[in-house]
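ping. complex inputs:
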Amino acid sequence: MICNLSQRRDTGMWRAATTTMTERSHGPSKMRLFYTVTIWVTFVHCTAGIPWTEEKLHHRAVTLTQEEIRTALSHTDLEQMWQRDLRPLMVTRYPGSTGSQAVQEHIKTTLGSLGAGWEVTEDKFVSQTPYGQLPFTNIVATLNSSASRRLVLACHYDSKYYPPQWHGREFQGATDSAVPCAMMLELARALDEELKAQQSTTPDLTLQLLFFDGEEALFQWTATDSLYGSRHLAQMMETTPHPAGATDTNQLHAMDLFVLLDLIGAPGPRFYNQFPSTMHWLSRLQSIEMRLHSTNQLVDHPNNVQYFWPNQPVGHVQDDHIPFLNRGVPILHLIPSPFPSVWHTFDDNEQNLDRSTIQNLNKIMQVFVLEYLNARPAIPSNPQNAP
Ligand SMILES: [Zn+2]
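pong. complex structure:
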C-alpha cells in the first residue's frame, strides 16, 4: 500500500463529504464515530505503518520555482571552484602519497569551515595491494548525523598510480575524479545557507558526502585490486547501527539514494539509465536540465536536453557504487557513456576540461539536491515591493 500526503489529503476530503451526506440520512453520532475511527485507523496505518527504511520508496522531491532556483544558484561560482578546489585536487594523489594527504586536508578543512555544521569523520585502514601494504582513508561528511535518512553524493579522490617508468609525467586525473570532488565541495559551499536552514525544516532527511580513497586499481583491475575505499566503507557502514542504538538497522539503511559522480568534466557527457529502480531520479535530473535551459541558465547548451537520458538503458560499469549496490542501496551512477576520450591517459588534465559543462552540471546538481531535500531557499525580500 502506498501512502503519501496527497492520498491522506484525499481521504480527509472524502470523510468530510461522506460525513455530511450520511449525517442527513442515518443520524449523526454513530456515523461520525464510525468514519472518525476509520480515518484514524487509515491515518495511523499510513504514518506509522511504513518503516522509516521504506520511506525512501515514497519520497517526493519539491519543485522549486524559477525565483527560488535563481536565488539558490546565485552563490555558485565556477572560477572560485576552479581556484579554491579543483587546482588543489589535481595533484598526484594515489593512496599513501603526500598529494593524497594534502587533498584529504583540503577536503576536511573546506567542509569544516562552512556554517552548515558538517560532521567530518575518517575511515582509515591498511590493505594489502600488489605493492604491499598501503594506508587508505575515506572521508565521510554528514550534515545532520541524527537524521534517519540520507541523500548521498560520492566521488573518489585518489588518482591512478603510474609507476616510475613514467617519471616526469604527472597524471592529474582531472575528470577522474578531481572534478566530481570539486563539484561536491562547491555544492556544499554554494548551498551553505540553504543546507543550514534545511536541518530544521526537514530534520529526518539530510545530505552525506563520501570521498573515497583507492578506487583505482594499483596494478590491474581485479576484485581485490580496486575499490579499496568503497569496499571498506560499505562493510563498515553495514555493521554500524543507525540510528544510534538500533538493533536491526544500520548506516546503509539510512541511504535513500547513493549518487556516484565519476569521469565528469569532458565536453558532451551523456548519462544513461543503468538502474530501472532509480530511473525516476535520472528523469528529475533531465527535467532540471530542461527547466534551467528554458530560463537561459545554462551556457553552451543549444538543445533542451543534452546530458540526462533516463529512457535509454546502458550496461553496468564497475565503480565505487558496487559494494553498496550489492548490499541493496539504491544507486544513481552519474558516469558518462562513452567515457571521456582522455580517460586513463596523461591528457586527462586541466587543459582538456570543458568549463561550460562543469558549470552547467554544478547548477543541475545543486537544484537536484535542494529539491530532493525539500529545501526551499529563502527569497530575499524586495524593498521596492514593501508597503
Ligand atoms: Zn580511473
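Residues 1-27, 39-46 have pLDDT under 50 and may be disordered.
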